[in-house]
Structures are given as structure tokens and as C-alpha cells.
Amino acid sequence: MTPISEPLLDGRSNVEERKLAARVAELGxxxxxxxxxxxxxxxxxxxxxFPNVKWKQIAGSIPQDLSGATVLDIGCNGGFYSIEMxxxxxxxxxxxxxxxxxxxxxxxxxxxxxxxxxxxxxxxYLLGDVPGQFDYVFFMGVFYHLRYPLLALDNVIKKVGGKLxxxxxxxxxxxxxxxxxxxxxxxxxxxxNPDFPAMYFIEKSYAQDYTNWWIPNCGAAEAMLRSxxxxxxxxxxSETWICVPINSQRNGRYILDLELEGKL
Length: 264
Description:
Elements: H1 14-26, E1 35-36, E2 39-40, H2 52-58, E3 70-74, H3 80-87, E4 92-97, H4 100-113, E5 118-121, E6 134-140, H5 149-157, E7 160-167, E8 199-201, E9 214-216, H6 218-227, E10 230-237, E11 240-245, E12 249-250, E13 253-254, H7 255-260
Parallel strand pairs: 3-4, 3-6, 4-5, 6-7
Antiparallel strand pairs: 1-2, 7-11, 8-9, 10-11, 12-13
């Protein structure tokens, strides 16, 4: 006698859940742990329930009601932040990534959960291909994977019509200080101060990941955000800042364009 599949609490059967789990596995290793109707995409993540553990500290800094808002999720990975923004009612959410595996995962997750989210392949260096600006731009967990991080950040600024939500790995000092406007050429002491803004360059690999290139300390992360014309308005957790552009243009020209023309 063939056993009858027991229905789950949401009306699905065990057979349907097994099919869902099989499809999740087929899509490859996930970095975002998403809850797809009870199926976890990365239950054994080395960081725990990631990125939800980080999101819990950030969520209160983002309005619960995003009705009418537009969102750009740069380096969207499996789509966690894109989905969270859609949950809050964002009118349009666009996630971009250079990795087809992550994009396929994100599309599947959004469809499974019933969210209308756009996902497309694209590079942070080629954001000019993305028309317009967005009310919220998420730039999470990408910065330290870039060989040219400040170039990327200056490029991201052009897409920020409202707020930037920025996150990067931090190593070294977690402290920040108020530094003088200038220092004499022979002053070498400031560079011995562990709090002085600094970036650690990874020549080979870090955490078994050859795409980890530049990892800032806290002082460097905040200094670069300010240097790109951003004002930090919130710092909800140790690796995340929420910023608004206040000085990203000079005489109507973006900092990046002026730099590339040698006019900055």
C-alpha cells in the first residue's frame, strides 16, 4: 500500500518539500541562507544564519514601509536583501551580480516566494548601463572583493538617489579618530597608529577566497565614504553604514568623472 504524503502546515506535502530541497541543491552551493517555505538554502553556513544574523541589526534602520521606493542591490548574491526590500513593499527592486550561479539562485528564490524582482548580470564597474537612480542602493559584502574598490564606490554614488547601505569586512582597528587636516612630510608617527585609516592588501588569498583583495580598518571605511562625498547618517552594526550623498558632485560633475579627466 502506497503511503499518503502528510500535508505540511502551509498545505504542501512532504513530496513537494523534497522536490524543493532537491532543486535548491541543484542550483549549487548557496552563500545566502534563505527560508524557502521551510527549506533552508544554506543551513550549515559557517557564519550561522547568514545574512539574517546581520540583517537583524540593520533592519531597524530601514523604513518598514517602502511603498513606491526603488531599490538597487549591487552584488545581490542569492537575493536576500532584494527579497527583504520587496517584503517591505518596494515598488521596484533590481538585483545585479556578475555570478550566474547566484543570479539563478536569486531568481529561483524570488519566484518560489512569489516576489516580482528583477535580476540581471552586471558589474559594479559598469553601472552606467543601469538607467537612473534609486531611493535605496545596497552595496553589501562586495567592496573587499574588488581589485579597484574606491573606483567602484565612486561609481556606485552615481546611482544613489536617496540612501546607500554599505557593508564591508573590517579587519584591524575598529576605532575611529578625528585627524588633522594635514601633516608635515616628516611625520611618520601617524602611520604607526593602528587607528589611522588603512587598507590591508591580500596578495594571494584570505579565508580560502582569492577574490578578497582589499580589507579596510574602520577608520579607512568611514574615510573613503566621506571622500566619495557621502555623509554617514547611521552605523547600525560594526561593518555597515547608511549614508546620503551630500558632496558627490562638484559644479555638477561627479567626483569619478573629474578624476578620470584629471580635473579633480
